[in-house]
Design brief:
Shape: globular
Number of helices: 10
Radius of gyration: 18 Å
Strand order of the largest sheet: 2-1-3-4
Order of helices and strands: HEHEHEEHHHHHHH
Distance between the termini: 29 Å
Largest sheet: 4 strands, mixed
Number of strands: 4
Length: 231
């Protein structure tokens, strides 16, 4: 049996199945990426709920795996050369799992796929997240509406980029890939949890809307969206 005792995080979240990938996450837009990818690839894994509402991600045990204190994080007991591999950052996890399984990262489109993954991480994630803060959460109390306008405009622009990319394509790379997995949760959150559908004029982006519907219809995506849901 694999011994994961070298990882302090397992003291707070004990591994019942140490031979499986250990996932530490919550069903946020970043958190669901790893869950969706694990469901899509069929790799056996054990999920652990990291409740950011009570600062689980700031505990010494979690910080020992991810010093940045953000979800998701992961331990693969069967990493390179058969040794355990710890990982954090959702984009790195997607690339790692794609290379481990040979799925959702076509070698012929490797760098372009990674470019679209980085586009999500550097654009959609931060911009949609800030829009959510200023539209739905504490940012609503700020009288100066210029920050909200900035993030609405940038989110709308990014949706336009995605809509253009999807013209004549079912998926960002033509075939389903980690680029889609990275973005689906964020677009879903934008019009759902953040309640910004009308704010960004989402229904005008018909290619994005159809892509989102296709993505959310995938059984593995449906499972991945709730695997670390609170409660």
């Amino acid at each position: 049996m694999t011994d994961l005792s070298q990882f302090p995080i397992t003291r707070r979240w004990p591994a019942q199945h140490p031979d499986r990938i250990q996932l530490y996450s919550l069903n946020t837009p970043n958190g669901v990426k790893a869950g969706i990818m694990l469901e899509e690839t069929g790799l056996p894994y054990e999920p652990h709920l990291v409740d950011i509402t009570v600062d689980d991600q700031k505990t010494p045990e979690f910080l020992s795996l991810n010093p940045n204190g953000k979800i998701p994080a992961m331990i693969d007991p069967d990493g390179p050369d058969g040794r355990p591999q710890a990982l954090f950052e959702s984009g790195a996890i997607l690339i790692y799992l794609a290379e481990k399984t040979g799925q959702f990262l076509d070698p012929a489109q490797r760098y372009e796929t990674i470019a679209w993954l980085m586009w999500q991480m550097g654009g959609i994630g931060p911009m949609f997240g800030q829009l959510g803060f200023f539209h739905k959460f504490a940012g609503r109390e700020i009288e100066d509406k210029r920050p909200l306008e900035r993030y609405v405009n940038e989110s709308r622009r990014l949706l336009g980029v995605l809509d253009g990319r999807l013209e004549g394509r079912e998926w960002i790379m033509g075939d389903y890939s980690i680029a889609d997995i990275a973005s689906l949760g964020w677009v879903r959150n934008l019009i759902g949890f953040y309640e910004a559908r009308e704010l960004v004029g989402f229904d005008a982006f018909t290619n994005v809307a159809a892509w989102l519907e296709r993505g959310l219809a995938r059984p593995a995506v449906q499972r991945g969206l709730v695997v670390t849901a609170k409660g």
